[in-house]
Amino acid sequence: MRLGFRPTSFSLKYRDQRSSIGMCLTETLDEMVSTGTLSPELAYQVLVQFDKSMTEALETQVKSKVSVKGHLHTYRFCDNVWTFILQDAVFKSEDRLEQVKRVKIVACDSKLLTQ
Amino acid sequence: MATNVSAVYIHVVDDVISKVREEFVNYGAGESVLNELQALWEMKMMQCGAISDVERSSLRKNAAPITPVHDLNVPYEGPAEEYETPTAEMLFPPTPLQTPIQTPLPGTADTAMYNIPTGASDYAPSPISDIRNSIDLKAGRPSPYMQPPSPWMSQRPLGVDVNVAYVEGREEAGDSSHQSMTQDFFVNSTGKRKRDDYASRLNSGGYVPQQDGSGDVTVEFSLPQNAVTQGQKSSIRDGQGTANFKFYFDKDAKPTPVIPQHDGIHDDYDDIFQFQGVSSEDYNTPGDHVEIRAATPSVGTPKPGKNEAAEDDEPSLNEDDDDDELDDLDQEEDEPNTQHLVLALFDKVTRTKSRWKCTLKDGIMHLNNRDILFNKATGEFEF
Lengths: 115, 383
Description:
- Chain A: Residues 18-58 form the Transcription initiation factor IIA gamma subunit N-terminal domain.
- By secondary structure, chain A is of the alpha+beta class.
- Helices cover 37% and strands 34% of the residues of chain A.
- In chain A, α2 (20-34) runs antiparallel to α3 (40-60).
- Chain B is an alpha+beta fold.
- Chain B folds into 5 domains: 2-98, no CATH class; 106-144, no CATH class; 158-248, no CATH class; 269-316, no CATH class; 336-382, Transcription factor IIA (TFIIA), beta-barrel domain (TATA box binding Protein, subunit D, domain 2, Roll), CATH 2.30.18.
């Protein structure tokens, strides 16, 4: 069961809710709303706050840099959102190297994100 | 890095919980609801491996009152391999309700156990408990009425065999009634070259056994000069499918110009081919059929019929030609567990010829079932 509301900002829609932490929160809120423990309004407030906290944490708590290389299979720019589908992509960070056969990158315009 | 992600996530959870507390109070929702929210959220993250057990163990105390709720969800959350480090307390909370009802051992089955849920008295056991007891009896101890099981068990496969034999018998009867069918069968099973080899050797021996182990078929040839070709297939010799096929084959009698089609699809085409009048209806649309028959009533009918039959076969062979690898990958993308995803903000995306460069920031990568956070990312892609 999904909540009736739709996130308003790009970050809500595209980033945080698709991450593990965001999906777990959404699931939790869905459950609590469907059982009547939580009102939908309050659940929405939690999501909004989560979006703020997550964005802030990514800016202040995370310092790592990553480089991505790969074959660009598909690119798309729609509604100020870039979507890249890479094949045989290699992600390098300071201490780790991840290889995936296929990955989707969804990026919203950082300038459009108002907080 | 993983610890870093855990730390950030826990920081975010704490931050969110502390900042919405005021809202909760204003809305009249109690502190307990907030605690439940936090506990559920963390539990889910732990289950999907987003945060590690150790770092949130201190927070687990808050979750204790509600753990039963989470535990009911355990089987549905996240991939099974992510459950590597749940605490025993989490998996088996000390709640009486969570204790699984143990299946009693066959010998120690207690009727009272089954009466509890139905609320029936000891003196008048409910139908349900009766059934359960009888089931238990049957499953556990071999009662006198369970003596037949072995005949029963062995009877079932036999019954299947009888069916198979019956079907084959019918085919045999059909085969033997048509000479050409016998020849077709022979050509198909041995092949033309082999037949010639055997034919030359058979002049002396007349019997060539072929027993290579799988579906052994013994083919027997005798070559009477003027005998009418007749086919006869002996019955199945044993249960392993070994069979004798005896062909009394007139060498001089050339096969009728019927090409057998035993490729698995429309195998009975040969039969139909011979009875052209009826057969073509199966492969033609009614309209076509009428036209063809009107134009070439007797001789021409089979040919168009055959062509159309071949055309009918084509789509079934090639129908998933357009399913290439990428389509499969697209479908795979719908499954959240196998998905690799990067969610971020972009600062700049540029392209020079087929070379793309982009700078991303504040992103979350979900690769190989793991979250990785980054502050900045640069991408170089070749299109």
